[in-house]
Design brief:
- With 90 residues, the protein is of the alpha+beta class.
- The protein has one domain.
- It contains 3 helices and 4 strands, in the order ββααββα.
- A hairpin with a 2-residue loop joins β1 and β2.
- α1 crosses α3.
- The radius of gyration is 17 Å and the shape is flat.
């Protein structure tokens, strides 16, 4: 079955990715707020989960460099939780 609660997996993945990105952006925006300076360092510290070093493929006409890193912070995890809650309501 390719459905999750009547909707496709693609929409769920889209919600999760957008939630993670918006949570990370919100954390970066709130990092410099004076009233939150005691707690924000803990919320925006990244945790390296997956880090693949960049690989370069040289095809003599095109040079392609590809790398991938997954380094979430607590604000992006909070964004994922909110995105899943919104997805279930959607």
């Amino acid at each position: 079955m390719s459905k999750f609660g009547g909707r496709g997996y693609g929409m769920c993945i889209l919600f999760v990715i957008i939630g993670a990105i918006l949570g990370g952006i919100l954390g970066e925006l709130l990092k410099n707020v004076p009233s939150l300076e005691g707690v924000m360092p803990y919320l925006v510290t990244t945790f390296p989960v997956f880090d693949m070093a960049p690989v370069t493929i040289d095809l003599y006409v095109i040079r392609l460099t590809v790398g991938l890193a997954f380094m979430p912070n607590l604000m992006s995890m909070l964004g994922i939780v909110v995105a899943i809650a919104l997805y279930r309501r959607y």
